[in-house]
Each structure stands twice: as structure tokens, then as C-alpha cells.
Amino acid sequence: MSTETAAAAAQVAAPPPAGWEEARSRVYAVGLAAALPPVNRSLSDADGYTLAEPLTTRTDLPAFPTSSVDGWAVRGAGPWDVVGRVLAGQTPAGLTADGTTVEIATGAMVPTGTTAILRIEDSGRTPDGRVTGTPRPNPEWREPGEEAVAGEELLPAGTPVDPALIGLAASCGHDQLAVRRQPRAALLVFGDELLTAGPPGSGRVRDALGPAVPSWLRRYGCQVRPSDVVGPVADTLPAHVAALRAALAGADLVCTTGGTMHGPVDHLHPALEALGADHVVNTVAVRPGFPMLLARLVDADGRVRFVAGLPGNPQSAIVALVSLVAPLLAGLQGRALPALPQATLAGPVPGRGDYTHLALVRLDRAAGTAHPVRHVGSAMLRGLAGADGFAVIRPGTSGEVGARVPVVPLPLLPGERTW
């Protein structure tokens, strides 16, 4: 594409923006359609991944009748003659005669022929050493299959793997899990005016997104290496095309910062056109963060990759991450699109007319309230640093004190649960 053609393309009016909720659903759908292939990971290396197959039991849980207490496995009425002892991990001989007992430990296999288990604290001894006592009316052991039967589905595909799931998988006999491959992500920082070290000054500002965005992406389950972060990329169309082509060679998702408008030095749109990308979403009716986009590229072999264009203003870029990148990555990992929790506004939040307003809030989880924070301009990061998420103020409304509104939580570390 010539410089003149690119300049003409850059002046083309942007299309009407997609509604925020529509955009969120649309990018999730294309991500799910391109869900990444399964890989096998050992239990010790599966935290933060996503189940690619349902988790099922390999045996009954428990696999055998298991004592719930320390005590005596007895047969028939007492007093009972002691004929043995069974500890956890042993396979005991059966009780074959009434009036007999074996000492049993918590977690040990219950001998066949047992009619009751007598707790140690409820037992006594006769002078000749026989065991006495009255078993409690409820059984003191767990029956096979009480928790789950062999082959039962415990958790569906798409469930995030966390420590609790890992423990459950181990308990039912798994050594590894089939999980979705983690998305590989890259970041291209656009803007000749950016500094990468030291304080801002002399008309140049410090790049805040290059250091921060990779950490956000990791919290959404991506792999991002230091070498995957490139920039600032020169403000020319050839430089943009070359940087995108190089990043897309190894990444499932390339995020860019800045250049999402149609001004004379905004080259993202013509660069995507030159690479043959199609837009999934091209601008979203949300404030802050309006000039955001998500594009898709499909190779001849069917491989699908994505480019997320984040605005250059830092808070706007994070709005684009939670609006477009988060649902896309949920789809790529085969997860459900997260339902948004609700909170009660503890302070007023203005509406933005026909646009959705994502307003930074601090959450009081105990009270279920959302408190608007200060310093929330699109170029500011101070408010973001003290916030837990964004309250969603829908188009044509304003956030009144006491109103119940959806909240988009900021991402946590992989495996952590949201509120």
C-alpha cells in the first residue's frame, strides 16, 4: 500500500460503534470458535489452566469402606475379643465370628463382616481385656461411592484449574489433566513520543502500558515473554506492518497500544488492512476507551490469530482489556463468559449518554457495595491503582446511590477466585 493510499484510508470515517455488551458477546463467540487445542499437564503444573475435558472419577470415592474415626470394628454384640489391628493403607482380614473386634484407625479399610464401629472414646475394657461399649446409632464409616461413583462427571470442561480442583483430581486417581493450551500473547507499543525510562518531560510522556499490560495478560492466563514486548514502534505504516507480522508469527493474540483512531499518524487500521485482517469489533460505544478494536487473521492452514487495538490513554487501554481482551481469552481457553457480579453503588456515577460508562470503583465485599474512586481521567492511572473493578452504567442511565449495577472485576492471579 502506498503512503498516499494509506493516508486516504486513515481519513475514512470510523464505522458506528458496537454496543459494549454486544461487543463483549461477539468477541467471546469468536474466541470460543477458535478455542486452543488440548495439552496434557501434570497435576503439579496445571494450576491456572482450563479443563479441556470433564473431570471424572477413575474409581468410586471412597474406593472402599473407610473408617471415619479411631476405634474398634466390631462384629455382633459385645463384649468383643480383640483379634487384630488395621491401620490406614492395609487390607484387613474379615471378621468371621460374632463377638470379635479389631482396632481400627481413621481412614483404614473396614474389614468385611463388620457390623459397627465403636469410637475409642466410647469404649472400655473388661479385666480380661475384652472391649466393651455401645456403638453410636449412625454408621462411623464412609461407604464406597458415597462421594462419587466410578466414571461420574465431577466438573465440566471449561472449568478453571485451581488448587481445590487439583486436589480433587488427585483423590480420584488422576496424575495429569487434559487442559487448554495457554494463549501466547505479544504487545506492540506504538508512539514515537513515548519514553521507556526516567521521568517525562520536554513534550514526551513515559510509556506506562508497556510494563503493565503484560502483567494484566498473564492474569488472564496468557504466556508473555519479555521478548514478546516490542516498542515504541516507529510512527510509519511500514514499521507497523513489519512489527505486526513479526509478532503474529508466534502469538495467538497481539495487543497494540495507541494508533486506534484515524489521524495522520494512526497506522493500525491500514496496517491491519495490509495484512488481510477482518474486524470483529471496530470501536465500542464505551467511555473511557472508545477507540478500541479487535481484528482476526486466518491463515491458509486455518490458524486463527487476533489483534486487539488498545487506546493509547492508559485507563482507556485497561477498559479495552476488560471489554474485548478478557472475553476473547475466556473463549480461547474454552471457559464460560464470566457472569458479572452485582454491587450497590455507595456514591453517584454519571451516565455517558448513548455510551456505556465503565467507572472505576473500590469494592467492599462484606457490604456488597461499590465506592467510586477519584482520579479517573482516561489518561490517569492513580484511580486504577486503588480500584477493584469497573461499575457498568448502561447507556441512557446514570448511577444513583443505592442502585444495583454490574461490576467488571479487574483480573486476579491465575487460579484465584473472584468475589
UniProtKB/TrEMBL annotation:
Q: Which InterPro entries match?
A: MoaB/Mog-like_dom_sf (IPR036425), MoaB/Mog_dom (IPR001453), MoeA-like (IPR038987), MoeA_C_domain_IV (IPR005111), MoeA_C_domain_IV_sf (IPR036688), MoeA_linker/N (IPR005110), MoeA_linker/N_sf (IPR036135)
Give the keywords, sorted. Answer: Magnesium, Metal-binding, Molybdenum, Molybdenum cofactor biosynthesis, Transferase
Q: Which domain of life is it from?
A: Bacteria
Domain annotation MoaB/Mog: ranges: 186-331
For this protein, the record's Pfam families field holds: MoCF_biosynth, MoeA_C, MoeA_N
Supply the SUPFAM superfamilies for this chain. Answer: MoeA C-terminal domain-like, MoeA N-terminal region -like, Molybdenum cofactor biosynthesis proteins
- Family under the similarity heading: Belongs to the MoeA family.
**Function as written in the Swiss-Prot or TrEMBL entry:** Catalyzes the insertion of molybdate into adenylated molybdopterin with the concomitant release of AMP.
User: Protein name, please?
Assistant: Molybdopterin molybdenumtransferase
